[in-house]
Amino acid sequence: MNRIVFFSFLLLISNIHISAQEDKKAKAILDKLSAKTRSYSTIRTEFTYSLVNKDRKINTSQNWKLTLKGEKYRLEMGDQLVISDGASMWKVLKTDKEVELSKPGNGEESMNPKNIFTMYEKGFRHKYIKEDKMGTKIVHTIDLFPINPKEKDYSSIRLYIDKNNLQVLKSEIKGKNGNVYTYEIKKFTTNEPFEDAIFKYRTSEFPGFELNDIR
Questions:
Q1: Model-level pTM?
Q2: What is the residue range of 52's domain?
Q3: Of 113, 117, 140, 192, which is least packed with CB atoms within 10 Å of its CB?
Q4: How many domains would you assign to the chain?
Q5: CATH number for the domain including 115?
């Protein structure tokens, strides 16, 4: 083995070792983040959702609000509102003055918002990228890659995690069609008391809306 090949071999082994260490570092951070997130009795957050596709000249954003309490949630997305008490789900279309009543777990519910903060626990490979700054905060930058990429319509997810508070500040999802979806947290509060009534559809809140039961 000549010297060039030998040093190339050493470099390869070194990179493999570093990658293994980075993966362990990413997993350790994500495990701590998961444990902390699951300890909250409730979560209320406001965040910006954006969709960018440079090739198709798409650049849109909305301010969303999410309230979580166990299996219950209330997600406000512009002119749409999704409410679930854990047993039923109501999708309120404000512009059309219509409401769809269905069971949790159907269709789009595979992206149940209660999983937003723990979606990285299963089905991904992790890679620690670097420690960086986001505004005045120090963040861990971690990339997630689906273990079964052919089954997903995205290729990777990048998480920006507050180093001190162990909180996801931003996530970027890269779609295979060129779409980049970004969720950036603006407000995040935990363990507030919420009445269960806010997780149920009330006709008094939306007078004149047509209810379609598709369960």
A1: 0.81
A2: 3-213
A3: 192
A4: 1
A5: 2.50.20.10
